[in-house]
Design a protein that fits this description.
Strand content: 35-45%
Strand order of the largest sheet: 8-7-20-17-10-11
Distance between the termini: 15 Å
Helix content: 10-25%
Oligomer: single chain
Shape: elongated
Number of helices: 7
Order of helices and strands: EEEHEHEHEHHEEEHHEEEEEEEEEEE
Low-confidence stretches: 1-18, 156-168, 170-177
Structural class: alpha+beta
Mean pLDDT: 84
Length: 273
Amino acid sequence: MGRSAHSSGRGVPYFRHVKGLLIVNPRSGRGGPGPEELLAHARRLELDTHELRDGEDPAEVARASAAGALGIAGGDGSLAAVAGVALERDVPFVCVPFGTRNHFARDLGLDRDDPVGALRSFAGDERRIDVGRADERLFLNNVSLGVYARLVHRREHHRRRRETFARLRAWAALLTHRTPLGITIDGEPVQARIVLVANNAYALDLPSIGERERLDEGQLHVYVPGDERVGERFVVDAAAGRLEAAVDGEPAVLQTPIHFRIEPRALRVLVPR
């Protein structure tokens, strides 16, 4: 892309000829630099910038851009939409950690507490990593079904109603829910309250999620308590015809059967040198 760099005099490298777009989700921030500070740093790097407004679709913003690299500053739930557009257009994707947990940024090797430093990715090195699909919906981390998914749905419901102690209320609602999901995996009945379909292997102790050593293994890992299945494709079905899910931590309802598959090394990702 013909990049060169020199100091801006403010402690931030200044890269010329970087034709990139940074989308900032201001509702994802948690301490550290705020959206305006991050946007100012990005403009100093001659990046195009866009701050999301309420109800605005980051995928549509990315799709309307002709930038040669597409980035988003947000939490895990914000990333997949822009990554999907980058994959469609075969341009590099940039992750700037700006959320609460930032699991994808961690597994990519970024400093989760340094979103400004992650802007160097726009002039960085390219890697190819796997993406997962739940039918046509892209995910970078995992899709959870069952207890954790219900937690995410209830937490979002309480948040929208502005109730106090939303997280505690959500967990309390789940403590008495002991009914198995009633699903099958590749036609085999599974008696479990939680199922996790992961893009590459996690160090896992359900329901807690550890780190992934690789993002280019080319395998899905399906975790249920006491069992793990590894493969490139899985079909999850349920008699109810639909399942509450958490896709990269975001609430969703998926129609069954759900066809999970992995796309090895499909996504071009930029990381700092």
